[in-house]
Design brief:
Layout lengths: L1 E11 H8 L13 H5 L10 H15 L14 E5 L5 E5 L1 H9 L6 E7 L2 E11 L70
Antiparallel strand pairs: 1-5, 2-3, 4-5
């Protein structure tokens, strides 16, 4: 028997404009891989704010499935690429793949939409119910300390997190206990994406 999991996130285009500001340096490269940056451009080669916002929202939505409360988002390990038919697909690697394996996640589906200056993404997967016991939840001593974490649990800094400070922090995310998956999670078949995303 499996238990469905869902994650959702919303990113305003204004936050993407902040990340693209030349005065703060190449910050966007910390969040998107080279391949993601390539497919997040308009036909004339300019950064596409809607596609970038959609990818950032999808990464956050996927992260919420991983049960990594209080840990930094493994931005480069969660890639939102074009899957079959141009639909968004998720590729996990490194720490993100380990977290997915530990959470016992099956294939991850994601859907992205954008309108009126915002992008929203929903990620869905499943895990085995019998492995989701309260005793499997990490204790406070298992969580990273402030010295191990580049931001405070309640308020991410602009350099570590592309979310606005008034948005929920990692400490507000639901906890998904531990389970196993392949080290390189393939791009899975994804939900249809309205308005030509990504």
């Amino acid at each position: 028997m499996t238990q469905p999991l869902i994650g959702v996130d919303l990113v305003p285009f204004s936050r993407v404009r902040e990340l693209l500001d030349p005065g703060i340096g190449p910050l966007l490269k910390r969040y998107l891989s080279a391949e993601e940056l390539t497919v997040s451009r308009t036909p004339d080669g300019a950064p596409d704010q809607a596609r970038i916002a959609g990818r950032l929202a999808a990464k956050e939505a996927v992260f919420k499935l991983l049960g990594a409360v209080g840990r930094p988002v493994p931005w480069q390990g969660i890639e939102v690429l074009r899957g079959p038919g141009g639909r968004p697909g998720i590729r996990l690697s490194g720490r993100a793949a380990e977290l997915a394996r530990d959470a016992g996640l099956g294939p991850i589906d994601v859907s992205i939409s954008h309108d009126a200056g915002f992008a929203i993404a929903v990620a869905a997967s499943s895990t085995s119910v019998d492995k989701r016991r309260a005793t499997d939840r990490p204790s406070a001593s298992d969580r990273p300390s402030a010295s191990d974490h580049p931001r405070t649990p309640d308020r991410p800094s602009a350099s570590d997190h592309p979310r606005t400070p008034d948005r929920p922090s990692a400490s507000d995310r639901p906890l998904v206990p531990d389970h196993p998956l392949s080290s390189d999670h393939p791009i899975s078949q994804q939900s249809a994406t309205p308005k030509g995303m990504p």
